[in-house]
Amino acid sequence: MDHARFSRLLEQAHAGQAIILAKASKPYARLIFAEKLMTAPGYNEDFFLWTQQQAALLRQGQWSTLDAANLAEEIESMGKSDRRSLASHLITLLLHRLKWDYQPTRRGTSWRLSIRNARREIGLILDDSPSLRRQLPDLIETAYATARRDAAEETGLPLATFPECCPFAIERLLDDTQPDTFAPPNTKSTTPA
């Protein structure tokens, strides 16, 4: 679809005419369809359609037509979502590391896989959003407090069993080449460090 054809379709949409765009050539390949592009349900009525409309408008440089307030909110929300997801995976990683280290007789494939999966997901998030690396110390501190409480509840061990501060160095905690079996200081482990 050439630029002139697309512009005519946008004009039709502005006029409230129903339009359907078929899968288009390279510049518009992601735009599968739009019905009443400018009068279709908005942000609160059909979020998916709204995202497709906003993407099409961005690609065409239709800045004045964008839903700027909601678009800005969604972009900001995407960043917060990555941060929340990172924190959630850190809690999972820390919880399973604590259980692994403080309940050696209950170690199993499930915990090992939870540790690996959390590390993998954390790595993917950090690859996509490297600036979150700078926030790791604070995120780990907060996540550790939650993981510590959860570990005490899940294991039935007293909360005081687990160190008040995270005993794991960031690099070693996230390094998927490290064994999942090393124990924190002052804890006996049946496997080598």
From TrEMBL:
A Pfam family reported for this protein in Swiss-Prot or TrEMBL: DUF29
Keyword annotations from UniProtKB, A to Z: Plasmid
Record-linked PANTHER family: SLR1203 PROTEIN-RELATED (PTHR34235)
Protein name: DUF29 domain-containing protein
Natural source organism: Allochromatium tepidum
